[in-house]
Amino acid sequence: MTPNPEPARESPLAYPRRVCRQAWRDTLSVYYANTPIWRFLKSSGLLVLGLFCWSASSLLLSYRPDWTILWYVAAYGFALILWGPLTHFVIVPLVIRLRRTAEHPVTRGLSRHASKLNLTVFFTIVILLGTFPIAPMTLEFQPDFGSDSGPDVDATLECTKSTADDLVRCQISSADGVDHVVVSSAGTELQTVDEPPFEFELHTEDLEEVVGQKQFTVELRDAEGDKLRQFTRNLDAIREG
């Protein structure tokens, strides 16, 4: 009697591969779901995710401007706010239509690889924005989240810039409890202001760039030199006056 052959042993990687393939199919099915409710849900979800990444990164950057990786997270959120709805309201429906009706080989090939091209363009934009941040990416959030407040100081920093003489003029308001102010750029101390109302001027050429943006930091300190509050400002985010 011939013994039954032993069943072939499955490779240890076979199950993870099946799981990954199924997850990819599920992702594509959601990506290409084209009913109006799916378009709305996907666009809304990406819009909320983009706003969260943008605002959270801007907040953290105001406290830790040296965490440059956050610029790429902020760029991802900033780009996603537009690119998410654009993808699911315009690009995906257009690709689905092309796959059904395209006859030219070039058009058919483009429709087959449209999702990869879309993601490639999107992440290229993210990398460019993260490496060279533009003013609108920081303008809305920097004034609100550009301070690290202490428990006993409710001061505000007011700055204007002048392109005529390349100067930034700043003043600290409501500076009760502040002994002196230290102004620095990229870790380099520029000046110390010892007398109220703590007014100072900065030459724009003295400001160092942090991820493509000229930036300076203003620290409010007490008589012992302890930091009470900190403000970080990007040059492009300061209004002209």
Automatic annotation (TrEMBL):
Keywords linked to the UniProt accession: Membrane, Transmembrane, Transmembrane helix
Entry keyword annotation includes Transmembrane helix: yes
Membrane-traversing stretches: 46-63, 69-96, 117-135
Keyword Membrane: yes
Record protein name field: DUF1616 domain-containing protein
